[in-house]
Structure formats: C-alpha cells, structure tokens
Amino acid sequence: MQRAAAAAVRALRGARVPPGRARVPPGWARSAAARAPPRGLLYGRHGEPAAVLQLKDLEVAKLGDSDVHIKMLAAPINPADINMIQGTYAILSELPAVGGNEGVGQVVKVGSCVTSMKPGDWVIPADAGLGTWRTEAVFPEETLLRVPGDIPVLCAATLSVNPCTAYRMLADFETLRPGDSVIQNAANSGVGQAVIQIAKAFGIRTINVVRDRPDLPKLVERLMSLGADHVITEEMLRKPDMKDLFKSIPKPRLALNCVGGKSTTEMLRHLQPKGTMVTYGGMAKQPVMVPVSAFIFKDVKLRGFWMTQWKKDQMHNKDSLKSMVESLCELVRKGQLTAPACTEVPLEDYRTALEASMKPFTSSKQILIL
Amino acid sequence: MQRAAAAAVRALRGARVPPGRARVPPGWARSAAARAPPRGLLYGRHGEPAAVLQLKDLEVAKLGDSDVHIKMLAAPINPADINMIQGTYAILSELPAVGGNEGVGQVVKVGSCVTSMKPGDWVIPADAGLGTWRTEAVFPEETLLRVPGDIPVLCAATLSVNPCTAYRMLADFETLRPGDSVIQNAANSGVGQAVIQIAKAFGIRTINVVRDRPDLPKLVERLMSLGADHVITEEMLRKPDMKDLFKSIPKPRLALNCVGGKSTTEMLRHLQPKGTMVTYGGMAKQPVMVPVSAFIFKDVKLRGFWMTQWKKDQMHNKDSLKSMVESLCELVRKGQLTAPACTEVPLEDYRTALEASMKPFTSSKQILIL
C-alpha cells in the first residue's frame, strides 16, 4: 500500500499545478499529439463522491526505470471506492487522490528495468489505492500484474477484487472437496456471483441467500443460470423448511458473510460443526452475533477476509497472486466465469454512474470506459 | 462419552433395584465389611439439583477384566455438573445418573487386563459423564487416568477440568512466547485462576477482567498473589485509561472469554491484529458480538473450546492428555499451581454445598469429601 500510495501521489504530482493545464511528458506528447490530454476523477477532500469528485486534466509522471506507462481501458465503481472517497474506509489515499482501485489498462511504454510486461500487454492493479479512474498513468511495475489479452475487457476490469476475493475465500479457510457445500449471503453481489461460478467450476455446491425483492424470480433465475444450487431469501433461512433442503445437499462447511446482524446469525445456524464462517463485508451495518454455544459445542470458527490486506501480504512474492489470476482467466476462457452484469459509462458521465452504483438493490456494476 | 455413559449406566445398574438396598459385589464386601455401603448422589429426572438429587445406596458393578474399582476421595461441584442435572447442558447422562464429572479416586482393585494403574494409585476421569459424586465405583480403565499421589488431594480432585481447560487454551490457539500477554474475563473463575498461574509459570503476562464487587480490593490482591499482572473491572475495560496499561504490556494475542455480551466486545477491542479470542463459557447468557471491521480489517479469529470434546477426541490416544497432566502436576509440586479456594463438605451435607456453589460471586469451590 505504501508503494501504491507513493505511486499514486507521484502520478498525481500535476494535480497541484493550475487545474485544466496538463504537463504532458514529451515522449507521450509526440506519439499521442492528436489525443485528448490525460484526465481523471480527482478528489481533494473526503465527502459524497458526486460532490467531491471532479474530472480534471492530469499530468502523467515521468517514466522511471522500473515504471510502466499505461493507458487505462475500463475501471469499475466498487463500494470500497465510494467508502474511500467518503473517508470511511480502513485505508485512505493521500489527498488529492484519483478515485478507483480496480480496472484494466494497456501498457504504452515500459522503463528500462521492467521485465514482466511490454507495450501492448494488459495489466491490472496488484495493490489497492492506485487510482484507476483516469485515462492514463505511470505506475511502478510491482504495483501491476499482467493479464492475458484474450479475455473480455469487462472481465479483466473486474477481475482483481471480486473474483479474487471469492477465489481466496473458497481456497484458504476450509479444504473443500467436490460435493461439499458453501452458504453465502448477499449472493447477488459481485463477490457472490463469482463465488457461485468458481464453486460450480470446482464441483462445490452453493446455497445462496438474497434479500426478498419485487423481481425475486428473475434474480433467482439469473443466479441459477450462473450455477447456483439453491437460492433462498433471508426469510426462508429462518424457516423449519430448511431441513428439507439439507436432505439433498450436505450442511455447509464454509459460510461467507457480507451482511452482519441477524441474517448472519441465522446463516451460522446451518453451518456444519467445526465449520468456518468468513466475514468480508457488513452491508447491514450491524455486528456479527454468535451464540456462545456455537463456539463451545459446535466448534465453529469465525474469520475475516480482506483482499487489500491479502495483496499487501503478497507484495514481495506474487506467485500466489499470479497463479490465482491464471486460474481465473482459464475459467473465463472456458465460459465458467463471466463478468457481473455491467453498465458501461463514458468517463464524462461519471456522476450518473456514481449515482447508479449507490442505489439499493443495484444489480448492475457501473464500469467507466476510459 | 459413549464409553463413559455406558460405564456410568453399568455402575448404576443397582439403582433400578429397590433404593436403599445395595447389592455389594462379594469381593468388595469381604474386604470392606466394616465400611458403610457404597453411596452416591443420584438423580432420576432433570431439575433443580437440590430437588432432584438424592443420596442413595448404590450397587458397585462387577469388576470386568478391563475395569478398575475405585474408592472416590473428593469431587468438586462445577457449573457444568449443575447444568447437566438441570438438563440444560450440551451432553446429558442417561437417567438415572450419578452427578459430578470431576474428582479423584484411589484404586482398590483392577481387572486382569488392566496395565496402566494398580491398587493404591490415584486416578482422575479421562472423560466426562462418569458420575463422580459417589463413594466408590467400577469404571473401565480407559475412562480413567493415573495421577501422581504426591500432590494435594484437592489439587488432584480439581485438575481434570479447569487447569486442563486453561492449559489447552494457552497452548492450542496462539504460539505464545514469554513476554506476550493474554486477556481474560471471569478471571476469578476456576479456569481464570488456573490461567493466571499457568501463564505466570511460562512467563506470559495476564490482564484479568473481573466484575466490580464490594470486596474488590481483596479479590485483586488474591489474583495478584496468584501471579496476575493486571486486574481490572469491566468498567475500567471501557475507559480510555486502558491506553496507559498498554504502555507497559503488549496488546494481548489471545483473549479468553467466559462471559459473552458487551463485556466480550470490549475485551475484543484490545486484542492485537490477527489475534485469537477463544470462547469457553457464556456466563452473561448473551451472544458474542463482533464488529464486522474486527474480522475484515483486524483479521481477528474467533474460536471455541470445550474440554469435554477435547478429551473425547483423545480417547484413542491419551499421550497429549498424559503429558498435560504431568506438566500440571509438576507445576503443582513447584507451588506454581494451587487448587482454587475450596470448601470441603461431607457428602451428607451435599445440599449446603449445592446451594453455596450456585450463589453469585461465589469465590470458593465446593468439594464433596467422599
């Protein structure tokens, strides 16, 4: 994160010169003379994104020996991006900052010491805090990771947070075998949809909890088409009928929690003895409540997961990150992992995209096209 | 537990013959002709202990090849014993049953295949549910464990639950090194006092949370004399002054929770990132509440511990159990582990003992002398 923050600050150096004027580096200026100047969504203070974000011309930092100059292709708006701008997230960028933590870019030029990527390659962030809502940037090689260019651009743009979170939670907490089951709430979220697809690809069955809503049958159909074994509402989770469900599917050894509050306590009740619940979000803004007996007599384990921290821990050895990204891209190629429902929005229309991304029950991820 | 339950049922076979009449096996009858007939505290239905327990003459089962005939010396009244009689515990004995799960006995006679103990040895239960509130019994060898006869009888009688729970929780969840710290609530409980002493012996510092009470200074003094580094009330736990405490002692890597509710949430706040909280009791009868952020951003781990289950898991290989008991006896010999404050009560006065054991703020463990 320190490295990413420093890179973001360096990339932003120009933001402190009079706005509207970009000091485009000579090399880039020559080859892209006809192009629009580099721009990005910048915030100088924390607050509501629509109020504090401004689309400004940005300077692109000088390319150092270990740096990579990229043109961004697409970058999604994720809930954590919103919270970082609001100033409520666990990590905050030094201000002024460019918004966005995820996305895909194409390499334009590399520094003389860069070995892992070359012009034309697609790259995604290997760390949070880079600021991806911009048209181009210079970042240190180590903050980026090459991805194959043969997957859809929207898949690449949304690969480094949600599918990676889903992959790690399925891999790192319980040794799941084909036929085992996993239960998750917020199953319609980006992570939720990735969990359904990755689990399906590995023969693991999923019980998916969603909030009741007017278009429930449509949602159920969509999640089933992704590979969900069961889709139930939070109300159904509390009913004795759940017993019937467990006649055809084993009790889950892993529960993935993105909600908190009562919903989570109910989900936990169905976990196998000695099973693990992993919390990675708290949409209900309520604590996780666990009956003492679940710990003592059922020996359940409660853990947490944060992709940002995981990536930070891999900064000096990216083998696990690379092998995960390769596996995920392989699933994409096989059609087993698709991008979530997306709405592509030109950078100029970022206010519309921000507004849409903050609506409750939103099912479509807003992707800025850069 | 199946084995222990079967043993308890066998040992009780006589309880179904007219009460007050004991069918004493011939061998025992000869050598103990002058002694009172075997007696025990029996319950035929679940309910309040004082109402359902009756002191009755009991038959001692015939000694099988793999059995051990013991004369009980002393047996404590623990909270779990009360809950089992009330019918509210996670495991219940087949009725009618003899109360009590812990205690020390002396071997009178062994079956022809018994190798691990001989007449005169002291033994403690290796499993829950044996029914220790009786003067003598025949149990299978595998449900008992030999202990050295050179430790105080009250130490031996109270060794198999609380000190073992404390030992395992300190050993099995975090790799603690001298200088590390542990925080625990209900620090005045039997387990709490054992945690203080065992931690002290291994150079681990303890922060001990107790409820405020009229004789607080006396309690603080007693826990400090056992080796506590800090004794604080639940109110102090919530105050900003806690910062000062952590100037002289590192934040705990392990929290031991026997309470639940708000007290536990407060305790959790002081845990080191990536630390573990182990829940082994729920005195407040409230769930454990954990802010989602503690899981995601602090990566705390929540686990549970139940000595009964641990022992059950060791049934086929008692090496860990034996080595733990040896370590604990060594601490006893060195004066580093003492029995909790005890009140010795003759078996006949069991109602007084039960009543005293169920009083709030009780600091003295009731021990039936058999």
TrEMBL record, chains A, B:
Keyword annotations from UniProtKB, A to Z: Acetylation, Fatty acid biosynthesis, Fatty acid metabolism, Lipid biosynthesis, Lipid metabolism, Mitochondrion, NADP, Oxidoreductase, Transit peptide
EC number: 1.3.1.104
Principal cellular location given in the protein's record: mitochondrion
Residue ranges of coiled coil: none
One Pfam assignment: ADH_zinc_N
Domain of life: Eukaryota
Protein's name according to its UniProt entry: Enoyl-[acyl-carrier-protein] reductase, mitochondrial
Localization: Mitochondrion
Gene3D superfamilies on file: Medium-chain alcohol dehydrogenases, catalytic domain, NAD(P)-binding Rossmann-like Domain
Segments forming domain Enoyl reductase (ER): 50-370
InterPro entries to which the protein is assigned, alphabetical: ADH-like_C (IPR013149), ADH-like_N (IPR013154), ER (IPR020843), GroES-like_sf (IPR011032), Mito_Enoyl-ACP_Reductase (IPR051034), NAD(P)-bd_dom_sf (IPR036291)
Family assignment from sequence similarity: Belongs to the zinc-containing alcohol dehydrogenase family. Quinone oxidoreductase subfamily.
